[in-house]
């Protein structure tokens, strides 16, 4: 599965390192490739709930467009994060 999104703005080198280290630690992570301003995030075909929720928090933390996670909408509806219920409908 591939998620394409506009990369975040980083405010220092450590901010960028935290972002990518967190992506790399997601259980369903396969790889991430940058092309221009966009990032192409490859995930395992079957994304688990923990991976989805980490992605949601990353997207919220770095103010990324949650619409990019549309392929995971079904899982989003099962999220335990209370603020996700408002966006997954």
What does this protein look like?
- The chain is an alpha+beta fold.
- The protein has one domain (2-84): Alpha-Beta Plaits (2-Layer Sandwich), CATH 3.30.70.
- The chain is 34% helix and 20% strand.
- The chain has a three-stranded antiparallel sheet, covered by helices on one side.
- It is globular.
Keywords:
89 residues; Alpha-Beta Plaits; three-stranded antiparallel sheet; 3 strands; single chain; 34% helix; alpha+beta
Summarize the structure.
This protein is 34% helix and 20% strand.
CATH architecture annotation name: 2-Layer Sandwich
Helical coverage, percent range = 25-40%
Query: What is the radius of gyration?
Result: 12 Å
CATH topology: Alpha-Beta Plaits
SSE class: alpha+beta
Biggest beta sheet attributes: 3 strands, antiparallel
In spatial order, strands of the major sheet run 1-3-2
Alpha-carbon distance between the two ends: 21 Å
Total helices: the number is 3
**H-E order:** EHEEHH
Low-confidence stretches: none
CATH class reads Alpha Beta
- The mean pLDDT is 92
In what range is the share of β-strand residues?
15-25%
Kindly give the count of domains. Answer: 1
Write down the overall geometry. Answer: globular
| Number of strand segments | 3
Secondary structure: elements and pairs:
Layout: E1 2-6, H1 13-25, E2 29-35, E3 38-43, H2 49-61, H3 73-76
Antiparallel strand pairs: 1-3, 2-3
